[in-house]
Amino acid sequence: MLVAAAVCPCPPLLVPEVAAGAAAELDAARTACADAVGVLAAARPGLLVVVGPADEDGRGVHRAGAAGSFRGFGVDTGVHLGVGPAQERPLPHSLSVGAWLLGRARWAASPVEGLGVGEDSAPASALAAGRDLAARADRVALLVMGDGSACRTLKAPGYLDERAEGFDTEVARALGDADTAALAALDASLSYELKAAGRAPWQVLAGAAEGAGLGGRLLYEDAPYGVGYHVATWS
Asked: What is the pTM of this model?
């Protein structure tokens, strides 16, 4: 059963070594993420699963001990997903950022696993994956990594799309209200057009939280680089 969840954005720029001189620009987001991870630890889960978007090579389950790095961003910083034997398959960037957040918090509250979700996953498949995760243990927590639209400004990765701000506003409301129905109803085609990588992971969360009676709290909402970033907790 799902007992707690934290939602965080997953840009590698959250890692100060990657952001370098611009690190201070995401200090507020890092602080909110740290607070969200603290809510997960307070829930005393028996299992924590980090969920995030992944390309084809990174999809599926990543066991404890899986490693990731930020070398592709010019930084020799490595991370591990919890404690476990070495794994051959590297973590996708979203789960690497999640592993970095857990390492920063010195996570020791429970075993940790990861789940990479395709950005093209059908809503029904994402919801079903969430239900499966919630059934894994009596007390399951999720760290859900994912960004909102990447079309908030002219300089955004996806250029400016007038629909982006409304999309992110509704996502923020749904995350803050723990509105599983609203997350489940997010349109996959619109999300793809707006380059919202968090859509499928948020729908995994919606499936996991069905019937759990959790309340939500929005801790952070902004679009500092034209990309919607949200931090929320469900408990």
From this structure: 0.97
pLDDT of residue 92: 97
Between CA 195 and CA 132 the distance in angstroms is 26
Domains of the chain with bracketed CATH: 2-234 (3.40.830.10)
Q: Which two tokens stand for residue 178?
A: 């723990």
Percent residues over pLDDT 70 in the chain: 100
DSSP states along 118-157: ETT--HHHHHHHHHHHHTSSSSEEEEEE----S-SSTTST
Q: Which pair of tokens denotes residue 189?
A: 């085609």
For residue 227 the two structure tokens come to: 């990309």
Summarised one tens digit per residue, pLDDT across range 57-105 is 999 999 999 999 999 998 988 999 998 888 889 999 999 999 999 999 9
Question: Which tokens hold the place of 158?
Answer: 């996806």
DSSP-derived 3-state class of residue 49 = strand
What are the b/e assignments for 187-209, b being 16+ CB within 10 Å? ebeebebbbbbbbbbbbbbbbbb
Q: Compute the C-alpha angle 28/197/163, nearest 5°.
A: 85
- 182-209 mean pLDDT: 98
The secondary structure of residue 21, as a DSSP letter, is G
User: Within a 13 Å sphere around the CA of 186, how many CA atoms are in the beta-carbon half?
Assistant: 40
Q: Is the dihedral of CA 18, 148, 9, 46 positive or negative?
A: negative
* CA dihedral sign of residues 225, 145, 55, 93: positive
Residue showing tokens 């990594």? 145
% of the chain with per-residue pLDDT over 90 = 92
